[in-house]
Amino acid sequence: MTHLRQRLADLEDLRAASVLLGWDQQTMMPPGGAPQRAETLATLQRFRHELFISDETGRLIEQAHASLNGIPDDSDERCLVRFVSRRWRKSRQVPAVLAADLARAASVGQEAWVYARQRGDFTAFAPFLRHNLELAKRYVECFDDFDCAYDALLDDYEPGMKSSEVARLFGQLKGELVPLIAELSRHTVDDSCLRGEFPVAAQRQLIEGVLTRMGFDRHGWRLDDAVHPFATSLGSTDVRITTRWDETYFPGALFGAMHECGHGLYEAGIAPSLQRTPLGHGLSLGVHESQSRLWENMVGRGEAFSQVLAPLVSNAFDTEISADTLFRAVNRSFPSLIRVEADEVTYGLHVIMRFELEQELIEGRLAVEDLPEAWNARMKAYLGVDVPDDASGVLQDVHWSAGLIGYFSTYALGNMIAGQLWRQVHEDVPDIDQQIAAAELGGLRSWLVENVHRHGSKFTTSELLGRVVGREIEVEPFVSYLKAKMATVYGISLPPNLLEKNQ
Amino acid sequence: MTHLRQRLADLEDLRAASVLLGWDQQTMMPPGGAPQRAETLATLQRFRHELFISDETGRLIEQAHASLNGIPDDSDERCLVRFVSRRWRKSRQVPAVLAADLARAASVGQEAWVYARQRGDFTAFAPFLRHNLELAKRYVECFDDFDCAYDALLDDYEPGMKSSEVARLFGQLKGELVPLIAELSRHTVDDSCLRGEFPVAAQRQLIEGVLTRMGFDRHGWRLDDAVHPFATSLGSTDVRITTRWDETYFPGALFGAMHECGHGLYEAGIAPSLQRTPLGHGLSLGVHESQSRLWENMVGRGEAFSQVLAPLVSNAFDTEISADTLFRAVNRSFPSLIRVEADEVTYGLHVIMRFELEQELIEGRLAVEDLPEAWNARMKAYLGVDVPDDASGVLQDVHWSAGLIGYFSTYALGNMIAGQLWRQVHEDVPDIDQQIAAAELGGLRSWLVENVHRHGSKFTTSELLGRVVGREIEVEPFVSYLKAKMATVYGISLPPNLLEKNQ
Question: How many A-B residue pairs are in contact by the CB < 8 A criterion?
Fold first, then answer.
């Protein structure tokens, strides 16, 4: 076990270097650094991949496995061996050259995307997307144990999840969201208090106050600017989050930062015993997103925290906004162009649409050159909005440029998981809303650390949910939460769910 | 040759990752990241070292060597094989575990130094320095082909240089500086215009203006803050320089930034054909320092450039300083505590003192616990100043904390080389001073690129100087430059050099 742990620590160090190279590329690197950066990332990925898939690593896994007799199922050791065995078997089917090509193309693609997005020029980006899809197909061809191409990709982000299951859940979600959106479109909420002049310096101060209450700590965290905000970490005491600023609309930066801080809290809460092992990260993107969305929406845009936020916002911008006005304003639901700025109700449709387009692209049913048209048509059909240009359409997200295909669905899965956790924390900590309203976030944070964070990647999503809520991923808790919230925001009553509530 | 180049490119990519990890540690990393950072750097160093010293790399070098028939002596190929052979033979004598230990200790030591320096607490730093010296001694013991311990260390920073030669040059330098300092102490210059209130924002704008004229370009450069300013690069189009700010005294940040920009221009000027090879860096620290000191002092504090600088300074700080006043003020010579803030005349003695202490430490003639006392005694003897505390004494420099022992002497060698290059550029470009006074720095930059920068590490220092000035390193041009400048600054006449001028 000691030898396996040493090998895995080496691999984690190589990973940490790549994480920093990626963080730097998105936050600090001058544009001239891009070509060299792509090579550096490709080389590190190649070394790491070769070292991981080597026969020697296989032997170390086997030896470690043989030493597990009498060690409990949920021990760090047994979870580590199980996790690494699974990943080793999958990774071994991928040639190191392809792993390096994927890393290089991701780095190159992101630079091309930044360029194309600035100019709203999809044709400048198309060759890079085509290349990324080509590589993704070659990657998929490495495996013969998945039901379909998309499953092989999805498995990297949400291990064990099937696209058929995602489709089933998304079907339920869509069935609930479409009538809800239709109903809400007949009502209105005043959100004029969110627009005006909000200098970056004042926003920054507001956000630092909020993040500090959440658990952001200068000793082990950084907050920077990025075109497409993200969170990452080089260990639980070097967490890096980012946001972007809009001086005419403050919720973007504020809730974006709370979202990324939610991701960061997950990484910061992982048990020290798992550091420098592959279990020392969030277990899947779905669970990761459950943390960010929970903090962003259920806390940040929640009725309880609005009582904390309203005086902070009023003070930062020298104005007077009541908790109720703020709560209703930040939850106004309306179809819009940009996923990361979408309200909680329409958000799911942004994701479902991407999930569908990704499947069509990867299965060759949709050609890259037809993507903008397909995008715009789907936006019209699902959300009723006209896309004025590709920058606010198909070019809005960084993911495909970075080769992250099969990733989007985890955002909606994250909302569902967040709904399940949110219901559970209310059962386990009955006065949680009162705590939050009093700016005491320690109770929620402790519950999350105890039930989710500290385990890192020890369990699968199913196992973790089984331990915490006793269920598989399901749609109903999220939809129930959403309807109850919207009923309050709009002061209306909404029909019950189509879905049954679990007992 | 292709296979060797591929292997070297991989090694350069690993190096680039380490460079970024180091840059980040000094500019961006939250303190909590330190323990993980040290491990990451150690692991990368171990991989890189193992890969480089492998038999396979040796075979690739041999194969490449065999393919050099008919290829000219000063070709990239031949210089590359020669450079790599030499380094391979030296590195092979160092175990990978020791290489990793050195990298880890350097990272850990820097954090300990930042902590100790803030508190002026040498005892908090002593164990780390002791450990670094221990590792340096183990490193030295790997070799049996150096005349003395110090030579093995010095060779890493100034390849081929001997400490006996450094001692000879430093003897000459000291012989010139001591009477010059005594003479200048009888005169005075008014530098009151340098002290006052200089907001960082105004300083930043001034510096950006100056650096842009020098060749700093946002496309391929960054300027950040650091406790101990430095320059580094991840390739010629990703150059990173740093400075620090003092709101009561602007020359520190300004000339510090020009100094680091001088380093950066060297890296940025290296031929594209040498990128991603070990020749794609400055050839030695001495030559590197010649570039930084040339831009900082011979340009930045020169009479010609003062005509450019005076209006920029006046404008930035809303004041009125004449070129002559500024020129004289920034060249005021007086014994002081801090090396990086020392004037050009006294600077050499700061370096000579460190060179002596380093030798005594590495040879065991001076114990770490006695170092502060020895430091303070030497400062009194050489410069006549009393050291009030260790923060402005023995703890002022980052180098020893980062395991950089044998490094300091290259600073004074850099001044000597700068003196030789400065004389030569005046011969080759007779109107260079007029160009500089007119803010046209392109002529100087081109001369440096043509004669120094583009060659990267193709030649040794001796070879490069032979090509450019037809001489070995010597003291006289620097001393002559310095005396002529000081005579103008103080409006006095000074006795001729003890050293003969070359014809």
Answer: 117
Q: A57 with A7: CB under 8 angstroms?
A: yes
Indicate the DSSP class of residue A500.
Answer: P
What values do phi and psi take at B464, rounded to 5?
-65, -50
d(C-alpha B319, C-alpha B329), whole Å: 15
Cβ of B503: how many Cβ atoms within 10 Å?
3
Buried b (16+ CB within 10 A) or exposed e, A11-22: bbbbbbbbbbbb
**Do the Cβ atoms of A209 and B8 come closer than 8 Å?**
no
Cβ contact, residue pair A43, B9, below 8 Å: yes
Tens-digit pLDDT profile for chain B (503 aa)?
999 999 999 999 999 999 999 999 999 999 999 999 999 999 999 999 999 999 999 999 999 999 999 999 999 999 999 999 999 999 999 999 999 999 999 999 999 999 999 999 999 999 999 999 999 999 999 999 999 999 999 999 999 999 999 999 999 999 999 999 999 999 999 999 999 999 999 999 999 999 999 999 999 999 999 988 999 999 999 999 999 999 999 999 999 999 999 999 999 999 999 999 999 999 999 999 999 999 999 999 999 999 999 999 999 999 999 999 999 999 999 999 999 989 999 999 999 999 999 999 999 999 999 999 999 999 999 999 999 999 999 999 999 999 999 999 999 999 999 999 999 999 999 999 999 999 999 999 999 999 999 999 999 999 999 999 999 999 999 999 999 999 999 999 998 877 777 65
Distance CA A143, CA A146 (A): 7
- Using a CB–CB cutoff of 8 Å, tell me whether A56 touches chain B: no
* Gap between the Cα atoms of B151 and A219, Å rounded: 40
Q: Does B54 touch chain A (CB under 8 A)?
A: no
Cβ distance A44 to B238 less than 8 Å, yes or no, reads: no
ipTM reported for the complex, 2 dp: 0.94
Nearest 5°: phi and psi at B415? -60, -40
pTM exceeding the 0.90 threshold for the entire prediction: yes
- What are chain A's domains? 2-145 (no CATH), 165-490 (1.10.1370.30)
Q: Is A30 on the interface with B (CB under 8 A)?
A: yes
Strand order of the β-sheet with B239-243 is: B221-225, B239-243, B231-233
As a residue count, chain B comes to 503
Report the first-to-last Cα separation within chain A, whole angstroms. Answer: 43
Record: contact B17-A47, CB cut-off 8 A? no
Distance CA(A413)–CA(A409), nearest Å, equals: 6
Q: Residue A20 — φ and ψ, nearest 5°?
A: -65, -40
| Catalytic site includes residue A358 | no
Place of tokens 């009093």: A438
